[in-house]
Structure formats: C-alpha cells, structure tokens
Design a protein that fits this description.
Blueprint (H helix, E strand, L loop, with lengths): L1 E3 L6 E3 L12 H16 L1 H4 L2 H12 L5 H18 L5 H11 L20 H5 L3 H18 L4 H12 L2
Antiparallel strand pairs: 1-2
Helix pairs in contact: 3-4, 3-7, 4-5, 4-8
The protein binds zinc ion.
The site of zinc ion (ZN) has 8 residues, from loops.
Length: 163
C-alpha cells in the first residue's frame, strides 16, 4: 500500500512494522533502517550517526505520546548544540541523558517546512563521503525547519546546563 510519511513527506510502498511512538510511515521506517544498517556496517559511514539520529528522530517525533514529545525536544536541542554551539559528540551524548531526566515536555506544533525535508540524498549516497555530506545537509535543514521553536530548545539547553 502506498503511503506518505507525515513527518518528512517520503512516499513509498511498504507493509512492515513502524516505530512504537515516532511518526515514521512503514516505508520511511524501512528506509531509515537501511541507512542505519550502512552506518553499522562501515565505520566511515558511522561518523555521521549521531547527527543522523538527532535529525531523523527529532523530525519524526511529532506524535502526542509523552516519549515522542521528549524525543522531539531533546534531539532538536542536540541539533542546536551541534550547529550553533559546535558541541562535541560526547558533550551531546551527555546532554541527551541529562535532558531526558527533565521529565516534562510541552507539545509543539510542527512547522510547515519540516515535512518538506527528506532523507532522499542520504539514501542515494554511494560512498561514506557523500553519506556524511548528505546527513549534514539534511540535519541542517531539519534544524532550520524547526526555527520557530528554537527558543524552546535553547531554554532546555540552559536548564540542563544549570542543573
Ligand atoms: Zn519520514
């Protein structure tokens, strides 16, 4: 059955499983799995893993479930740490675990630009260099698409830093 991913606009045909609380369509979830498999098979691809997970999980965590709201806030804040604060991967990983303890995350309206940002170029990459560039571009576009809520993510970063 043909379906369109409400989070990123990907149109595909797949009847497999979906994530428990993130808003992947079946075809998008399967394609994300293929991209992740490449990263786990090849260390050079894996370089982009942190950024891919933050951008993709952030973009697809748009449902009402409490876990989805938490995922949206902390992964979007992680993108902000990467692009605006130039934080290192260990700093971002530490932030994610500290931010998860905060416990309450408000629902946010999906900005109109977000469903237009796709992983097509990542899936089409034919080597690790292209993969890394495509992930960086995708993540930057996700970060920019969610600009209307940047003050919320900045406040979360400050709150975690102040603890
Ligand atoms: Zn999607």
């Amino acid at each position: 059955m043909m379906d369109k991913c409400i989070a990123c606009g990907f149109v595909g045909t797949h009847s497999g499983p979906v994530h428990a609380y993130m808003s992947f369509s079946p075809a998008c979830w399967a394609r994300y799995g293929e991209i992740l498999a490449r990263e786990f098979e090849d260390r050079a691809y894996f370089e982009a893993h942190r950024l891919l997970v933050d951008a993709c999980c952030g973009q697809h965590s748009i449902g009402p479930d409490r876990r989805a709201r938490q995922s949206l806030h902390i992964h979007m804040a992680a993108l902000m740490l990467h692009f605006e604060d130039r934080a290192s991967k260990p700093e971002i990983v530490a932030f994610l675990s500290n931010a998860a303890r905060i416990g309450e995350f408000a629902p946010l309206e999906v900005p109109p630009a977000s469903p237009l940002v796709s992983m097509d170029a990542i899936h089409a990459a034919s080597n690790a260099r292209e993969h890394g560039q495509a992930v960086a571009e995708y993540a930057r576009r996700v970060h920019e698409a969610w600009a209307p809520h940047h003050p919320v993510f900045r406040a979360l970063i400050e709150r975690v830093r102040g603890r």
